[in-house]
Sequence to fold (113 residues):
Amino acid sequence: MSLISSYLLALFLTIIIELIVAFFFGFRKKIEIIAIIFINLLTNPILNYFLLVNDHFSFFKSSLLIILLLEAVVVLVEWKLLVFALQEKPKKLLALSLTMNFCSYIAGVLIFR
Fold:
């Protein structure tokens, strides 16, 4: 599998997994689904590009700690974007962001490693 196709597969799986989590959180409206898709279209490629560039140039030693820190940044960014886009209770959206990203991260580890 080429690098680009594996990144596209990772993006697609992330979106599917995070939409499933959002569904269980009660987010089923068209605007909610669109917001989650677009937020992932923004954050997922940036995260993966950063990891790819880091692997190539070795700015930081890739470790679980670095990946978890980057994932934490993604959780916070997605949370703020969800609050802006959906105008829901911030605590509920933080829980949503944490859960979506936890589930997609674990799925990625199971599938791609």
The CA atoms of residues 55 and 62 lie 7 Å apart. The chain has a mean pLDDT of 91.
